[in-house]
Amino acid sequence: DLPQKSHRRWYCAVMLEQSDLLNHPLAGPFWQAAAQSKLVICTCATCEVDIWYPKERCDHCNQEAGWRELEGRARLLSWTVVERALNPNFAVPYIPALVEPLDAPGVQLVTWIKTDFRDELVCDMVGHVAFDVIRTMDGKEYRAPYFEPASQQVA
Fold first, then answer.
1. How far is CA 37 from CA 19, 60, 69, 76, 80, in A?
2. What's residue 151's pLDDT?
């Protein structure tokens, strides 16, 4: 289940304003794992439900949420090529994308794909996670996940 729109707007606003992502109360574990080249997702150990965007408690059982490492393969749901800069720290063109991790069905992660792969992209193709440094609008650098195409396609 996707979080309510108001929760998503709040989360995005907090992330854009946050100057220290590693210590953010909800998303800190995601960025700490990314700094170690690991992809993790917020989850409930009690009812085994993945929670995205991160929350403190599970919507299903109200237990405290935790984190689990993902295998790193995902199906490409959507992408676009941005030709005009919205953030001066992102060189254009760049490719924001929406992927669904194979080991977290129903979860949709917003990510990016390097332009080297622009001509290879097809809906439902399988990709794998890689990590690179990004810079926030306030100039801080973070290691962030992005996806690269894999040769294997989802049937």
1. 20, 30, 11, 20, 25
2. 62
